[in-house]
Automatic annotation (TrEMBL):
Domain FIST C-domain intervals: 203-331
Organismal lineage: Bacteria, Bacillati, Bacillota, Clostridia, Lachnospirales
Residues annotated as domain FIST: 21-202
Organism, scientific name: Anaeromicropila herbilytica
Name assigned to this protein: FIST domain-containing protein
A Pfam match: FIST
Amino acid sequence: MFEALYFKSLEESKNFIASNHSKGILLFASDQIVRDLSQYAGENVVLCSTAGEFTKEGYKEEVITGFTYDRGVASIVELENPSIRNINELRKAYDKVKDNKNAFMLLLCNGLAAHEESIISTFFFIKDDFKIVGGSSGDYLQFKETLIYIGKKKVDSVAIFFDCKSRTQLVKENIYKTTEKKLLVTEADPLSRTVYKFDNVPAATKYAQLIGIREEKLADSFSNHPLGRVIKQNTYIASPMKVNPDKSITFYSQILPNTFVDVLEPADLDNCFHNTINMLEFKPTFIFSVHCILRSLKFKEEHSWGKLDSKLLQVCKNQSGFISYGEQIYKKHLNQTMVLLAIE
């Protein structure tokens, strides 16, 4: 039912779109390619810009990846800003699939609007165990404009509900472990995703002290020491984006005041990849994965992408995915994570 797509040129993907009007098509590519493809896309096509692509040959850059699906099993809902405007369409699409334990929603959010949490709050009527997987659109680190299209229409975000008949499973992979060092958020603005103080000390000062480095070197340590919210032995990562002149820190996801966060450090990659594969409860026929841009940059620097490619592709060759500016799993938005949907 789900068939992975992989094109190396714009022309290839244009030809495929032109000859497959009856199929649902979801494609991921750079912002420029997405912009060009939108001119040829019908209502059966959803496009999303990325910061890298995952294909049936593993991690790639500047290619087009995606998958096809039976249009009869999918309901596409445009999400405006704010997404509460689309509450009726969301309820209608959810009601069609809510009794199917294998159904899922693919959620693609505007990667530069910083309103993923606001969108997720619109899903208050959806059961907590309903499968939601997704990512935030990217633009190859230009941070100018990310793109999502339904056909030729540019949209802010999109939710696609799939009434899948085969067994499905969601998996979350972290490559970090807690140092057991904790910070109490004593002053923060969740809407701007900014923390002003940890333990009543300017955020950058306290963060640097706790990991034992000079304050001016803090930004260089973000990829190895992100912060995490540990909930029932599950770690949900919030990645620091930048240190501001007033020593506050802006993050890629919300951190709430009066909560504790753990300082994290890298875990053993081979063990992490091995454990992810062992979490799969069945032999998948299709895998869709979303990978954080910060993970991707770390993998590129350490030449680790090949290891993950090998592990995932050994399980299933029929794969697609993309590098995102944030990840969604169930009703949580997080960073520096891989989220994976497996379909039997």
